[in-house]
């Protein structure tokens, strides 16, 4: 039997060439995209390692400052009771808060639902630490002789604003993104505000902490602060470390290239800038 040969016209040949070129271009683009993603993940991992080192150094510095300059920790004297306040606030409102908003980008291989649950759980731990820190502050003022007034300084005012905003974020986030039956349109409308106020809340926590360290140094050192004492210099170092840590976290959480790529199993769950 003789086989019929298909006639190849110039138009058909050109189409085949164009399809081959297009396919090659798409393949090359995919390779470039994957290469860029790997590069961004590697850069993020490096910055995340630095971020963890700086965060742990910050906690250790606050602990060292309290042990060596402020008399340590305890529940017997008002001044010693207060020392729990800066330590718990540093762990909760700076270190854990930073890790909670970086969680989506750090553990990008996990399911979106699991990441949301982890995000909420970390925030729950933060609330516990913040409440303990607040108790330490009020208790130390109340048991002092004479008692020290509460909520008169700018640091305390900003602290109230920061805590109130954090609690509002926690409640609104839980209702909007974890509570079943919420319409997708509502989630989509709330997401940009949740992201903005989350980052703003963290920046406010950093500013409040720096102001608190500075205020404490003024109170305990008074005129000695002007003579460059060791505690004053070390306290200033803690403040600078807070600012550096906060700037690094904000950079990592707002850089679009570090965003977690949506996965098929995410389903209809919304994606946000914090991922």
From TrEMBL:
An annotated GO cellular component: membrane
Predominant location: membrane
Domain Cytochrome b561: 50-254
Ranges that cross the membrane: 47-67, 87-107, 119-138, 158-179, 191-213, 233-253
Record membrane topology: Multi-pass membrane protein
Domain of life (superkingdom): Eukaryota
Keywords for the protein's UniProt record, in alphabetical order: Electron transport, Heme, Iron, Membrane, Metal-binding, Transmembrane, Transmembrane helix, Transport
Pfam families: Cytochrom_B561
GO MF annotation list: metal ion binding; oxidoreductase activity
Cellular localisation: Membrane
Position of the signal peptide: none
UniProt cofactor(s): heme b
Name of this chain's protein: Cytochrome b561 domain-containing protein
Organism: Acyrthosiphon pisum (Pea aphid)
């Amino acid at each position: 039997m003789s086989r019929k040969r298909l006639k190849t016209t110039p138009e058909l040949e050109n189409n085949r060439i164009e399809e081959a070129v297009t396919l090659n271009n798409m393949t090359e683009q995919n390779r470039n995209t994957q290469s860029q993603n790997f590069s961004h993940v590697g850069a993020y991992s490096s910055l995340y390692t630095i971020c963890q080192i700086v965060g742990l150094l910050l906690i250790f510095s606050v602990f060292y400052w309290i042990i060596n300059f402020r008399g340590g920790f305890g529940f017997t004297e008002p001044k010693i009771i207060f020392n729990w306040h800066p330590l718990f606030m540093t762990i909760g409102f700076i270190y854990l808060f930073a890790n909670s908003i970086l969680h989506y980008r750090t553990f990008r291989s996990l399911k979106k639902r699991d990441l949301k649950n982890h995000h909420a759980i970390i925030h729950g731990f933060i609330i516990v630490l913040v409440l303990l820190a607040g108790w330490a502050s009020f208790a130390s003022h109340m048991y002092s002789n004479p008692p020290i007034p509460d909520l008169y300084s700018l640091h305390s005012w900003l602290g109230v604003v920061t805590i109130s905003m954090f609690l509002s974020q926690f409640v609104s986030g839980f209702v909007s993104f974890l509570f079943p039956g919420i319409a997708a349109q509502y989630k989509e409308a709330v997401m940009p505000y949740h992201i903005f106020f989350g980052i703003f809340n963290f920046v406010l926590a950093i500013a409040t902490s720096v102001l608190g360290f500075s205020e404490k140094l003024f109170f305990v050192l008074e005129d000695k602060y002007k003579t460059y004492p060791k505690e004053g210099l070390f306290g200033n170092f803690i403040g600078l470390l807070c600012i550096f840590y906060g700037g690094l976290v904000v950079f990592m959480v707002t850089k679009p290239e570090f965003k977690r790529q949506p996965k098929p199993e995410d389903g209809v769950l919304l994606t946000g800038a914090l991922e």
